[in-house]
Amino acid sequence: MISRETIDRIFEAVRIEEIIKDFVDLKKAGVNYKGRCPFHEEKTPSFVVSPSKGIYKCFGCGKGGNSVSFLQDLQAISYPEALRYIAEKYSIEVEEEELTDKQIRQKSNKDKLYDATLFAEKYFQDILWNTNEGKNIGLSYFQERGYNEEIIKKFKLGYSPKGANAFEKAAIKEGFNRKILLEASLIGENSNGKSYDKFKERSIFPIHSYTNKVVGFGGRSFNANAKSKYLNSAESLIYDKSKVLYGLNFAKQDISKQNNCYVVEGYTDVISMCQIGINNIVSASGTALSKNQILLIKRLTKNITLLFDNDKAGISATIRSIDLCLQLDMNVKVCLFPPGEDPDSFSKKNTSEKTLSYLKNKSINFVDYLISSYKLEEESDPAEIIEIKKNIISSISKISDSFSRQEYCKIYSQKLEVSEHVLLKEVNAFRNQVSFYKKTVGKEKNISPTISSKTQKLHQQEQEILRILINYGNKSIGLGDNKEYVASIIAREFQVDEIKFSKELHQKTYDEIIKIIKNTGVIDVQKLINNTNSNISKFCVDLIAQAHDISNNWKERHNIMTGREDEKMRKTTEKAILSLKKEIVDAKISQIQTQIKEGSISDETVKILNDLIKVKTKIAKVLGRNIG
Ligand SMILES: [Zn+2]
């Protein structure tokens, strides 16, 4: 566990613009920064970063938060992982609080497997660099492939020696038990119960998860008698092949920045391309992309370019990947290399500039790719032509956005020699075939309870009070002895009338604000933004960003109000409190009316109802005056 002191130090050091700049191109805009939102597709920037508040907010998709939640959301990592990321960036030493016995016992099996794979990764690297066998076999192999020292170290490549059970012995000496090593697929067991090193006499390519943990290994054998030249870890508690992309842990930032992800077949393709500076690249490990793999990429960009081989297996993997990408609302392009070349070989023969311009110029739209890979233009058999066209139409029908579907039909009707009208009709026919499935799956969405408009209004008003409290609570209004903080006015009203918020998050946020005022005397906005409860933190960011113009609001923070603004502030506060009271009374009235409709009428309820209506009328009168 990270100590409280360390967490405080991290929040003191972090500059949100420095964190976000690693992922988003930010341009200065007044006191703020602006850029294109990494959470949704947009052409004009609506993503605003405020260095002074330490928050970001997207006015397109609504996402907002502080540095930690930005990293958590963008990289799908945990709170401690995001804190560690920042600590590393600012060279802050992370103090860990000692785990209690109970916490140690709870350390899951998963963690034990991670410990074992991490040990193995270090062990294989150590053998590669520091033993004669490693240098002569493993290292010289990587060097023959053209890898430089920097790239070998970046990808943590290693070598597993040929000595019998060499790895297992080293691991057991370090305290790992055999069961864990077996579960992590680091050792195997033959039929008579004897164990052996899985990756014996192989060069090692560690496979990392999205969050940079070693989950498995790939190994290339140097032994002519080995059953398979290439070997991968078996799936385990921590390694699910369909959820891992080789190289993604290194490529995340570049994928975001370039707003595109190249997908290649093999590990060596990734490494070679990275060596010439093309870093937004991952490998699907020789198969078509899985749904989960595409979703991993989708967190970073909506654009995928497939660079699979142009052989039979490569083509079929490309076509399957295209369909899945389209279904998941991604834009897909394909880039084919000259005959006999793959990304690995091409990048070795060409400079970075040449490779980049090849990728740029030769990346084609998925429909063009399908037309050429099905060899439509060479086909003369009508039955074959129909079959090919149907396949292409089926792919177009997978595009989830109706406008894009229409555009594709318009653009490709000529090339496919099908009128636009017929093409669109066929595409829709394909969609209808699968809509039965969608209907059954989509059903669950409608179950969510509908919140009545009364409750909604009440929630809105509660939010308005909190918005005023956070943004203007520290302002004092009035003169001389009548001077009073906006926060005090609100707190007093809540106390006197025993007002409680109807929404749990609202009440929690309010309690937190009151707690901060009691401790420090003022509303410390940073304490709210960096609250350990991420719901409170995000909610407060929203409230702060909700002012009509975020920059104006932030600018006015330290300004002294003029007489007119002072009066306006008082009115706004009073109006908000009254409106909330009105909504609360309204909600109670409708609650009682429902009871009456259901038949439970007593003299008592009728009396309460009448009183409430009187109160409501009174409030409405005051409100009318106040606003008027
Ligand atoms: Zn957005």
Could you characterize what this model shows?
With 628 residues, this protein is an alpha+beta fold. The chain folds into 5 domains: 4-89, Zinc finger, CHC2-typedomain (DNA Primase, Chain A, Alpha-Beta Complex); 107-239, DNA primase, catalytic core, N-terminal domain (DNA primase DNAg catalytic core, N-terminal domain, Alpha-Beta Complex); 243-373, Dna Topoisomerase Vi A Subunit, Chain: A, domain 2; 376-439, no CATH class; 449-623. 56% of the residues lie in helices and 11% in strands. The chain contains 28 helices and 18 strands. The strands form 5 sheets. A 5-stranded antiparallel beta sheet has the order 1-2-3-4-5. The chain has a 5-stranded mixed beta sheet with strand order 13-12-14-15-16, with helices on both faces. A 4-stranded antiparallel beta sheet has the order 6-9-10-11. Helix 6 crosses helix 7, helix 19 packs antiparallel against helix 20 (420-442) and helix 22 packs parallel to helix 27. The longest helix is centred in the C-terminal third of the chain and has 35 residues, at 563-597. It starts with a helix and ends with a helix. Mean pLDDT is 86; it is low at 436-449 and 548-561. Zinc ion is lined by residues 37, 39-40, 47, 58, 60-61, 63. Zinc ion binds at residues 37, 39-40, 47, 58, 60-61, 63.
What's this model, at a glance?
The chain is α+β, with helices and mostly antiparallel strands and 628 residues long. Bound molecules: zinc ion (ZN).
Query: DSSP strand (E) fraction?
Result: 5-15%
Query: End-to-end span in angstroms?
Result: 56 Å
Radius of gyration: 31 Å
Number of strands: 18
Characterize the main sheet: 5 strands, antiparallel
The molecules bound to the chains, other than polymers, are: zinc ion
Shape annotation:
globular
List low-pLDDT spans.
436-449, 548-561
What would the average pLDDT be, to the nearest integer?
A: 86
Report the helical percentage: 55-70%
Biggest sheet: strands side by side, in what order?
Answer: 1-2-3-4-5
* Number of continuous helical runs: 28
Structural class: alpha+beta
Number of domains: 5
